Structures are given as structure tokens and as C-alpha cells.
């Protein structure tokens, strides 16, 4: 199959995606496979292993076996699972080049002092500690390479990390933490070839709002009423574009809105 310049640059890479069972992560897996179908290894991680197996089969069906796909069950909120992740990979899958830290969630719209402890903990354990632990698990592989190290860390933040809103205090705080960690990491790795990239979506229609409203689909649908949100493919294309730049190009920071959105709370809705 023919490849674009971007496809060629990605050839031979091993890519880990967290939260690959749904939404942006799932689309990112498919987009990497389509962009570089000749020689790629995709490690798809999430808690729902059966869904990951189905996605792996769908990718193989679509692009053929130039793309090898490894579904791997991993709960990023469990530090012991993250710390043993790399050693549990089969040998030929350990030479990771790109880590997409995408797993994340929002729970509820409660305001202090009524926010459930469980919701606070799961958001921080997944969005913040999970992302940091994944980064720490994979960075030694990057740092062992020439020129101080090579590899890409792509963190999925959010407009919520830049502009906190009422009813989202915990989620916004987790995404602000992602932003601080990412910016500090880029500075810490300045003497290397390791690229630290953050992509901050605005409104994207995925399972995100269904998770926020504890499975209540009608409440989730109301979030998008009168709007045309981004699709997960829109963000996946930007993730793959960032990873597919020439080695010396770092798309450090990207904020992406659908055209009706101008800030976390500024939406134009058709009535
Ligand atoms: N949708 C939006 O409007 C929006 C906007 C800005 C940023 N984001 C960010 O984009 C990222 C992806 O979200 P999405 O919109 O694609 O939502 P989604 O469709 O709900 O997907 C979230 C993914 O994260 C995984 N996940 C959740 N908890 C996990 C855990 N403990 N360990 C491993 N994987 C876990 C889920 O898989 P399992 O349930 O199988 O584990 C799922 O694959 C998140 O970081 C989110 O904060 C979304």
C-alpha cells in the first residue's frame, strides 16, 4: 500500500494508546493504522479487553496485517498494573516509540461540598496519577536511545484544563494538572529528542458525557443539543499529524474547538 510522507515517518514505530476502547483513543488507533499501514505495532490498552479485541480485529480487517495490534488490559488508575505493564509485554513489543496518554474520565456535575469522594478519587487516579505513572513507565525506554533519548509523549488535556467551569471543578483541576505536568516535562527533557505534546479538545461527542452522567444517555444527549460537536476522528487526525511530523518539529500545544464553541462555556446553540 502507498504511504504519504507522514506514513513513511511513522513506519516501524510501536505505539501505545491508553483508553483505546472508545472515543478518541479508538479513533486514534484506526487513524494510525490507516496513515501507516505497511509496518506498525499498536498496543491498545483499556479496561474493556473484549472491546479492544474487537477493535484489533476491525483494524486488521481494514488495513491488513502490516499493522500488528496487541490488545492489552490495563487500568491506569492502578499503579501496580502500570508499573508492571512494560515487563508484561512480549519482548518484540517493548521498544515503544509513541505513548498516547488518552485514558480519562469525568464523573458528575456536583459542586463542593457535595462532591462524592469516590468521584474525586477516580478522576485524579485516572486523569492525573494514571497519566504520570504511564509516562514514568515508558520514559526509561525513550531515554535509553541516542541523543539523550527519543520518542513521543502525547497527552490529551482539555479546554477544561485552561478554563475551569462550575460543576466541573474536579475534572478541570485534573486537566490543569495534566497541563502543568506536561509543560514541566517538556522543560525537563529539553536536552533530548523526546517530544512532549499536548492536545486540548473542546467538545467531542464520545462516551465521555454518558460516563459523566453515570450511564444516563438522555442527559448525555442534552449536552450536544443544538450543537455540532467534534467527532473523535477529528482529534485522532490531529494526534497522528503531531506524531507524524519531522523529528525536529514539536506540536507542543493545540486547542481544538468545533466551530460553534469559543470557550468551555461559550457555545452557540441552534434553537
Ligand atoms: N469528549 C470530550 O468532549 C473531551 C474533551 C476534552 C478532552 N477529552 C479527553 O479525551 C480523553 C478520551 O475521552 P473520550 O472523549 O474519548 O471518552 P470515552 O469515549 O469515554 O473514552 C474514554 C476511554 O478511557 C478509558 N478509561 C477510562 N478509565 C480508564 C482506566 N482507569 N484505565 C484505562 N482506561 C480507562 C475508557 O476505557 P475502559 O472503560 O475500557 O477502561 C475509554 O476507552 C479523556 O482524557 C478526556 O478527558 C474529552
From TrEMBL:
PROSITE patterns: ADH_SHORT (PS00061). It holds the Pfam family adh_short. InterPro entries: NAD(P)-bd_dom_sf, Sc_DH/Rdtase_CS, SDR_fam. Transmembrane segments: none annotated. The keyword ATP-binding does not apply. GO terms for molecular function: oxidoreductase activity, acting on the CH-OH group of donors, NAD or NADP as acceptor. Keywords: NADP, Oxidoreductase. SUPFAM superfamilies: NAD(P)-binding Rossmann-fold domains. The keyword NADP applies. Belongs to the short-chain dehydrogenases/reductases (SDR) family. This is Oxidoreductase. The lineage of its organism: Eukaryota, Fungi, Dikarya, Ascomycota, Pezizomycotina.
Amino acid at each position: 500500500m502507498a504511504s504519504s510522507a507522514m506514513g513513511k515517518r511513522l513506519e516501524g514505530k510501536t505505539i501505545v494508546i491508553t483508553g483505546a476502547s472508545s472515543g478518541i483513543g479508538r479513533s486514534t488507533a484506526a487513524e494510525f493504522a490507516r496513515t501507516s499501514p505497511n509496518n506498525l505495532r499498536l498496543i491498545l490498552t483499556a479496561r474493556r479487553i473484549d472491546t479492544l479485541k474487537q477493535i484489533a480485529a476491525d483494524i486488521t480487517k481494514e488495513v491488513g496485517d502490516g499493522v500488528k495490534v496487541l490488545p492489552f488490559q490495563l487500568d491506569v488508575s492502578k499503579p501496580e498494573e502500570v508499573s508492571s505493564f512494560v515487563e508484561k509485554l512480549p519482548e518484540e513489543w517493548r521498544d515503544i516509540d509513541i505513548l498516547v496518554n488518552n485514558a480519562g474520565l469525568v464523573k458528575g456535575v456536583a459542586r463542593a461540598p457535595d462532591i462524592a469522594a469516590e468521584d474525586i478519587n477516580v478522576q485524579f487516579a485516572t486523569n492525573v496519577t494514571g497519566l504520570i505513572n504511564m509516562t514514568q513507565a515508558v520514559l526509561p525506554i525513550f531515554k535509553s536511545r541516542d541523543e539523550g533519548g527519543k520518542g513521543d509523549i502525547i497527552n490529551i488535556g482539555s479546554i477544561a484544563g485552561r478554563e475551569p467551569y462550575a460543576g466541573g471543578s474536579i475534572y478541570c483541576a485534573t486537566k490543569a494538572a495534566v497541563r502543568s505536568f506536561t509543560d514541566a516535562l517538556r522543560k525537563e527533557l529539553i536536552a533530548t529528542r523526546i517530544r512532549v505534546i499536548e492536545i486540548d479538545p473542546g467538545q467531542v461527542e464520545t462516551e465521555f458525557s454518558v460516563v459523566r452522567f453515570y450511564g444516563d444517555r438522555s442527559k448525555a444527549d442534552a449536552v450536544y443539543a443544538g450543537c455540532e460537536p467534534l467527532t473523535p476522528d477529528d482529534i485522532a487526525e490531529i494526534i497522528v499529524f503531531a506524531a507524524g511530523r519531522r523529528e525536529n518539529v514539536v506540536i507542543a500545544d493545540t486547542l481544538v474547538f468545533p466551530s460553534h464553541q469559543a470557550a468551555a462555556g461559550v457555545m452557540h446553540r441552534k434553537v
